[in-house]
From TrEMBL:
Record protein name field: ATP-dependent Clp protease adapter protein ClpS
Keyword list, A-Z: Hydrolase, Protease
Encoding gene per record: clpS
Biological function: Involved in the modulation of the specificity of the ClpAP-mediated ATP-dependent protein degradation.
GO MF term set: peptidase activity
Organism: Octadecabacter antarcticus 307
Subunit text: Binds to the N-terminal domain of the chaperone ClpA.
KW Hydrolase (keyword) present: yes
């Protein structure tokens, strides 16, 4: 502002803000009717968990009510929830799967 050029100039640097997309926790909820083996199968099939990891998470849900089974972009999380809800409905199990912004 001291150089009497009427403040005309060229901005030489711009901020490169790389905003990461929000992530979503996908959770499964306990209920009294869905068979344990079905929940284990769902976790193996849709969340690329090993059998042992799936058993551990299923038992955590059975005891505590719910657990996070994975964290994904919005689109992937929506797909996982839909896949679980669809398979559970087709087998007439009341299993619930939901997503929540992290
Ligand atoms: N509580 C169920 C039973 O005793 C098992 C179960 C576990 C159901 C986890 C849902 O998300 C769930 N058969």
């Amino acid at each position: 502002d001291d150089d009497d050029d009427n403040d005309v100039g060229v901005k030489l640097e711009t901020r490169t803000k790389t905003k990461r997309p929000p992530l979503y926790k996908v959770m499964i909820l306990n209920d009294d009717y869905t068979p344990m083996e079905f929940v284990v199968h769902v976790l193996e099939r849709f969340f690329s968990l090993t059998h042992d990891q799936s058993v551990d998470i299923m038992m955590a849900v059975h005891k505590k009510g719910l657990a996070v089974v994975g964290v994904f972009s919005h689109e992937i999380a929506e797909t996982k929830v839909a896949q679980v809800m669809d398979l559970a409905a087709r087998h007439q199990h009341p299993l619930q799967c939901t997503m929540e912004k992290e």
